[in-house]
Amino acid sequence: MFGLNGDDKTIIRKLIDKFDLEFVALTRGAEGSLLISKNDISE
User: Fold this and answer.
1) Cβ-based neighbours of 36, under 8 Å, separated by 6 or more
2) pLDDT on residue 3
3) d(CA 41, CA 25)
4) What pLDDT was estimated at residue 13?
5) In order along the chain (43 residues), what is the average pLDDT of each group of 10 residues?
6) In this structure, are residues 25 and 34 in contact, taking their beta carbons and an 8 Å threshold?
7) Looking only at Cα atoms, what is the longest distance across the chain?
8) Which of these, 20, 13, 17, lies nearest to 34 by C-alpha position?
9) Pairing verdict, β 41-42 and 23-27
10) b or e along 7-39 (b: 16 or more beta carbons within 10 Å of the residue's beta carbon)?
11) 34, 26 in Cβ contact below 8 A?
12) What is the pTM of this model?
């Protein structure tokens, strides 16, 4: 998607930069979630 490669954290960081986002939340079902902002990561 969007021609981005890498692991989840790398792709999300690229999306944050590309679209000037404050944060991105990724839900991973039974594996929990991932919340990444420009300066922090929460798993």
Assistant:
1) 9, 12, 13, 16, 23, 24, 26, 42
2) 83
3) 10
4) 93
5) 85 93 95 94 93
6) yes
7) 29
8) 13
9) unpaired
10) eeeebbbeebeeeeeeebeeeeeeeeebebeee
11) yes
12) 0.79
